[in-house]
Design goal:
Layout (H helix, E strand, L loop, with lengths): L1 H7 L9 H5 L37 E3 L1 H6 L5 H7 L1 H4 L4 E4 L18 E7 L3 H4 L8 E6 L2 E14 L6 E12 L2 E12 L2 E2 L19 E4 L8 H7 L5 E3 L31 E3 L1 E15 L2 E20 L1 E6 L12 E6 L5 E22 L2 E22 L2 H8 L19 E26 L2 E22 L2 E23 L11 E13 L3 E13 L4 E12 L3 H5 L3 E10 L4 E9 L8 E12 L6 E14 L2 E2 L6 H6 L4 E3 L5 E5 L3 E2 L2 E17 L2 H11 L9 H7 L5 E2 L2 E2 L49 E18 L7 E2 L15 E11 L2 E10 L2 E3 L13 E3 L2 E11 L4 H6 L6 E8 L8 E3 L10 H4 L5 E10 L12
Parallel strand pairs: 2-4, 25-30
Antiparallel strand pairs: 1-3, 3-4, 5-6, 5-44, 6-7, 7-12, 8-11, 9-10, 9-15, 12-13, 13-16, 14-15, 16-17, 17-18, 18-19, 19-20, 20-21, 21-22, 22-23, 23-26, 24-25, 26-27, 27-32, 28-31, 29-30, 32-35, 33-34, 35-36, 35-37, 37-38, 38-41, 39-40, 40-43, 41-42, 42-44
Length: 941
């Protein structure tokens, strides 16, 4: 009855002030504070606070000191920094429980984190997810409160690309009660091609600012009289500059005979757009009896503005025109700089609301409900140029006031051709998970998780392209379910065939009923073997079916002019019109995966983790973005390419497609090493305690930190100077600003738990020296596009993307140092080179072969936690809780080198096209404001 009443009380959350939700003082008469974060007691055989369900051990665990050594400020940055360990986007849990979406916790400051568990893919099954992503479990401090403010400025060392960001947040954590509010605004200036060393790619037609003259008949002579004057057959002639001021004479074109005028348009095109973003994110969590409820809302507005070159005009000049000295009809090709650059504006609005409920059904059963409502609206406006009908009409009429070579009256340029598109998607989802123990076997409990869910999805799109309107209205309803069961077979601790270690198996079945695709099923099974405490081996196999998303089917058709591509068929870089949007003919895909992974932790100190994963994946009808236009791709999808009579590529339809089959096999291995370092303050505290720990013997530096305020708790010195908040010196590093971690006299162990498998050792505080290295070896990457087309080998000469084939080797290395408030983090990424053969099938070699060199980039972040510098904060109290960070991305300004068969770099692959920003530098200042009175929300005895 109590549990039911808690659910009915949920609507009252919206009417309660956040401050009231946090005000939960201890009962009167309580004389002693609750145990501190860093003093968490671990009972042998019992799970840690916030641990995930099941018997699978974490591959890695990070303490607060480990998190500080990463130099991140939020959970969003934390997940990004852990990408080498997670090998992509992981599933996120909070305190061992599901969340409605990542928006719930993305803006939480990293100081609020007590522990991070990184777990293998099989753990996802326990929480109702597919076993294809690693799981990251974020465990928060039990008490934490602070207001945050951050400002960040950045630029490129080559100039341009200036950007800035302002962030403000409010956080209150008290057990299962939590309130967060975060506001973020960012802006980045556009980067023009003229701000980089870009050589203009010639247009497929001879446009220029001054203009070029061609015969009205393709490839014919312009005028025999001009050929006679020039002494050669003239098929093209650049317009003389004097023509802009009056009608030219025939002799004025002799100097430009058979010379194509080219113009620099780099100041009219962007390499990276101007962007502006604003987001507001709020989360309210409340413990209602036996139910913990969380309500999250997020609103995001985004603007993206890019420039796509200039309007073009192909104007016909009759033989009798007052501005044409030629004896026959000709065509003038020119850019209309007077009309300004072509722009493309993308405006986005997204809204999200999420609800999470977690509760217990009994001691061995628990339930979780998540509900989400999402709305996304994207509006795109693409300028296709000026309509030249009025200009052409005036020229045909012989209007002497309209000079085709000069500026036009504003009225002739007033009609612009504009394409518009609007896409709207909305979804309501609900999901209920029940998990617990079915029954007990000699080797342990048989666990199961049962998930049922449903969603209603709507997609609307409307586009106007070249005056033609298209509308799409599409809906999809989904009912889904998943059942997973884990059975322990052997157990060392329970004496069931313990000589071979701990072995368990799992089986999972899932199904989705889609209103538009029918039933899609998933079947999988796995094995867990832990022969000894330090070794864990996991094997799994699964087959799943997936339908294309609603946006992949219904996105509006958008035409973007002047997109740079490399045409392998001709070996030239060209500008084309690119079509993007949805494809209603997409089919479902079927994927079979086999994964074998091993985790080894040979020592407790230092904390070393070795991991290796073998993955074999085969997919039928994979859905993919349209690949780069190699001859093999064009041969398989000729209807997607538009060329003129000379073979020049004019247009690519880049909407998504189904390939016939893809195969991927890879081996990924690596290690993480974390070495604890004792801070200077920690050493002072330990020496003082070793001498007896009497207040009168306290070293002057500690005396300056603690002042005259003393308090005893559990026989250990505690306390902090008034107003110090969470910036009290932390001997073990386990406490964070605004939190309630251990004091400088308290026990070490940032979260009291292991640095690896549960219970295997202590995650100590203080500083950290860390190393990680991960190598991915791609053994096979192939795609069969369509029946009768040769299979693409992406490791040996084929490609689907514009950046070449699949590198066979990829390496990610990270080195970190943090101690005494000073830290640095160096990241190095390297991938091997590839090549793409541009020859048509059935022919030998080709001049359009491209070699893509290997690429190594290094990123450095240096940070100073000023609050950990006692003398500095004593002299300048404002700096408590503050951090200064300097980031340098791509330190050595490296770009990939691309060469064709002659050794030259194609214009499309100029290095500033591949990486417009190059080396970037940023500086940020972040401040945590803590409540006065020292310990934040800590109750006073």
């Amino acid at each position: 009855m109590r549990r039911s009443a808690s659910v009915f009380l949920l609507p009252f959350l919206l009417g309660v002030a956040p401050g009231a939700l946090m005000a939960q003082d201890q009962p009167k008469g309580t004389a002693q504070e609750a145990p501190e974060e860093g003093e968490e007691i671990i009972v042998t055989g019992q799970p840690q606070r916030g641990a995930v369900m099941g018997e699978i051990e974490p591959e890695q665990q990070l303490s607060p000191a480990d998190v500080r050594a990463l130099g991140v400020t939020s959970i969003n940055e934390l997940i990004t920094e852990l990408s080498p360990q997670t090998n992509g986007t992981p599933i996120i849990l909070l305190n061992g429980k599901r969340i409605s979406s990542f928006a719930e916790i993305r803006d939480l400051p990293s100081e609020a984190v007590a522990r991070v568990d990184i777990l293998p893919e099989q753990v996802a099954l326990t929480y109702g997810y597919a076993p294809t992503q690693k799981v990251v479990n974020i465990v928060l401090r039990q008490r934490f409160r602070a207001e945050t403010g951050e400002i960040k400025l950045g630029t490129t060392t080559e100039g341009g690309g200036e950007n800035g960001e302002v962030d403000a947040g409010l956080l209150r954590i008290r057990g299962d009660n939590r309130f967060t509010l975060n506001l973020d605004y960012s802006r980045a200036a556009r980067l023009l091609e003229s701000q980089r060393d870009i050589t203009t790619i010639p247009s497929s037609r001879p446009y220029s600012l001054a203009g070029n003259i061609l015969s009205a008949t393709q490839r014919a002579e312009i005028d025999p009289a001009l050929s006679a004057l020039a002494g050669q057959n003239v098929t093209i002639a650049s317009v003389p500059a004097s023509a802009a001021n009056g009608a030219p004479m025939l002799g004025d074109f002799v100097a430009g005979a058979n010379v194509t005028s080219l113009s620099d348009l780099t100041r009219y095109r962007t390499l990276s757009p101007a962007t502006e973003n604003f987001s507001a994110n709020a989360t309210l969590a409340r413990a209602l009896g036996g139910v913990s409820a969380t309500l999250n809302g997020r609103l995001e507005l985004s603007d993206n503005d890019s420039l796509q070159g200039l309007s073009t005009a192909a104007l016909g000049l009759n033989a009798g025109s007052p501005f044409s000295p030629f004896g026959q009809d000709v065509t003038l090709y020119r850019y209309l700089a007077q009309a300004g650059a072509l722009g493309q504006q993308i405006r986005g609005t997204t809204g999200h609301i999420g609800l999470t409920l977690n509760g217990q059904l009994s001691r061995k059963w628990q339930w979780s409900f998540t509900g989400n409502g999402d709305l996304s609206i994207t509006r795109t406006r693409t300028d296709r140029g000026v309509a030249t009908d009025a200009i052409q009409a005036a020229l045909d009429a012989g209007d002497g006031s309209v000079n085709p070579y000069g500026d036009f009256a504003p009225g002739l340029l007033s009609t612009r051709m504009t394409d518009t598109a609007r896409a709207k998607s909305q979804a309501v989802t609900a999901d209920l998970l029940v998990s617990g123990t079915l029954f007990r076997m000699p080797a342990g409990d048989v666990m199961t998780s049962i998930r049922v869910g449903g969603s209603a999805n709507g997609f609307e799109s409307r586009s106007i392209r070249s005056g033609v309107e298209r509308e799409t209205d599409y809906s999809r309803q989904i009912a889904s379910g998943q059942v997973s069961i884990d059975v322990p077979l052997t157990s060392r601790s329970k004496g069931v065939l313990g000589g071979i270690g701990d072995i368990g198996v799992n089986l999972n079945v899932a199904a989705q009923q889609l209103s538009d695709f029918g039933t899609l099923s998933t079947l999988g099974y796995g094995l867990r073997w832990q022969p000894v405490r330090a070794v864990q081996i996991l094997a799994s196999a699964n087959q799943d079916r997936a339908a294309p998303t609603g946006s992949q089917i219904t996105d509006p058709l958008i035409s973007t002019p002047n997109v740079s591509v490399f045409d392998y068929a001709t070996g030239q870089s060209v500008f084309v019109t690119q079509l993007s949007g949805g494809n209603a003919s997409l089919r479902e895909s079927v994927r079979d995966q086999f994964r074998l992974s091993a985790t080894v932790k040979p020592f407790e100190k230092p904390n070393l983790t070795l991991t290796a994963t073998y993955l074999n994946s085969r997919t039928s009808n994979p859905i993919a973005a349209f690949p780069t236009p190699t001859p093999s791709i064009e041969e398989a999808f000729p209807q997607r390419f538009l060329r003129d009579e000379d073979g020049n590529l004019l247009q690519i339809d880049a909407r998504p497609i189904n390939f016939l089959r893809s195969q991927s096999t890879q081996l990924r291995w690596g290690f993480d090493l974390s070495i604890p370092l004792k801070s200077r303050i920690q050493k002072l505290v330990e020496a003082w305690r070793a001498s007896g720990g009497r207040p009168e013997d306290r070293p002057p530096e500690l005396q300056a930190l603690f002042g005259n305020r003393e308090r005893r708790q559990g026989g250990q010195e505690g306390g902090a100077p008034p107003g110090a908040g969470g910036d009290r010196p932390r001997g073990d590093g386990g406490a964070g600003p605004g939190g309630d971690g251990p004091r400088p006299g308290g026990p070490g162990g940032g979260f009291g738990g292991p640095g690896g498998f549960r219970g295997s050792g202590g995650g100590q505080g203080g500083g950290r020296l860390s190393f990680s290295l991960y190598h991915t070896w791609h053994l096979e990457e192939s795609i069969l596009i369509a029946p009768g087309v040769p299979e693409l080998d992406l490791l040996n000469g084929d490609a689907t993307g514009s950046s070449g084939g699949q590198p066979r080797h990829e390496i990610k290395a990270r080195i970190g140092y943090s101690n005494n408030g000073i830290g640095a983090r160096l990241g190095i990424d390297w991938e091997s080179g590839t090549h793409v053969d541009g020859a048509l099938s059935g022919t030998a070699g080709g001049a359009s072969r491209l070699d893509f060199g290997s690429l190594a980039t290094a990123n450095l972040r240096i940070f100073a936690n000023l609050g950990q510098m006692p003398q500095l904060t004593k002299d300048m109290p404002f700096l408590r809780g503050s951090r200064v960070s300097i980031g340098i991305d791509n330190i050595f300004n490296q770009r990939r080198e691309v060469r064709d068969a002659t050794g030259a770099t194609p214009l499309r692959y100029q290095q500033d096209y591949l990486d417009p920003l190059g080396r970037t530098v940023s500086i940020s200042f972040r401040k945590l404001f803590f409540p006065t009175g020292g310990a934040g929300s800590r109750p006073r005895g």
